[in-house]
Amino acid sequence: MASFNKVIMVGNLTRDPEYKQQPSGQAVCRLSIASNRSYKNKQTGMLVQDVCYIDVDVWGPQAENCRQYLQKGRSVLIEGRLKLDVWQAPDGQTRRRHVIVSESVVFLGSGQQAESGDEAGQPQQQRSNSNPSRSKGLLDSGASDDFAGESLFKDEPPFEDDLPF
Questions:
Q1: SS3 sequence of the chain
Q2: How many Å apart are CA 95 and CA 24, to the nearest integer?
Q3: Residue 10 exposed, middle or buried by CB count within 10 Å (0-12, 13-18, 19+)
Q4: What is the pLDDT of residues 100-141, one digit of tens each?
Q5: How many angstroms separate the CA atoms of 148 and 136, rounded?
Q6: What contacts 1, CB < 8 A, 6 or more positions away?
Q7: What is the pLDDT of residue 4?
Q8: For 85-101, what is the mean pLDDT?
Q9: From the CA atom positions of the chain, what is the Rg in Å?
Q10: pLDDT at 137
Q11: pTM score > 0.85 for this model?
Q12: Cβ(17)–Cβ(67) below 8 Å
């Protein structure tokens, strides 16, 4: 029987990356991410926020990039495979947890960058729309072909909530 193990997840880092160099010289970086899901409880009618926390192991040159450019709160898209870690705790009990072993990490914009502009210091409105008479940064009903190839959407962080991290 064939098997398939692929995970794609978008989330925010819950803490700064933990970087280690293995004795073999291989770099590894452990990321901890939280991915949010909102839904309406059918019984109470209340909006419920569900959060999934998971660790991600990034290996090799991409681990170096994660150490250098990522920090707590930054949004990332992770693509990889799911792995079950099993170990003996000091109290003798067997512990288990799922970890994503990353194949690729895409750094997404953070909330501060979306509001203040990109790394080059250029405000996002000017980047997304070069016509000063139409500098809202959002798609408006008067869009025409003279903006072909330019995005009229303003980038927004994928998750905006009141969680403490």
A1: CCCCCCEEEEEEECCCCEEEECCCCCEEEEEEEEEEEEEECCCCCCEEEEEEEEEEEEECHHHHHHHHHCCCCCEEEEEEEEEEEEEECCCCCEEEEEEEEEEEEEECCCHHHHHHCCCCCCCHHHHHCCCHHHCCCCCCCCCCHHHCCCCCCCCCCCCCCCCCC
A2: 26
A3: middle
A4: 999 999 998 754 543 444 444 333 333 333 333 333 333 333
A5: 17
A6: none
A7: 95
A8: 92
A9: 20
A10: 35
A11: no
A12: yes
- Residue 50, φ and ψ in degrees, nearest 5: -110, 130
- Where residue 157 falls among pLDDT bands split at 50, 70, 90? low
Q: For 21-55, write each residue's pLDDT tens digit.
A: 888 889 999 999 999 999 888 888 899 899 999 99
Please give the C-alpha separations between residue 115 and each of 147, 151, 158, in angstroms, as whole numbers: 23, 17, 14
Q: Which pair of structure tokens corresponds to residue 22?
A: 């293995």
pLDDT 10s digits, 7-18? 999 999 999 999
Angle at Cα 163 formed by Cα 158 and Cα 165, nearest 5°? 85
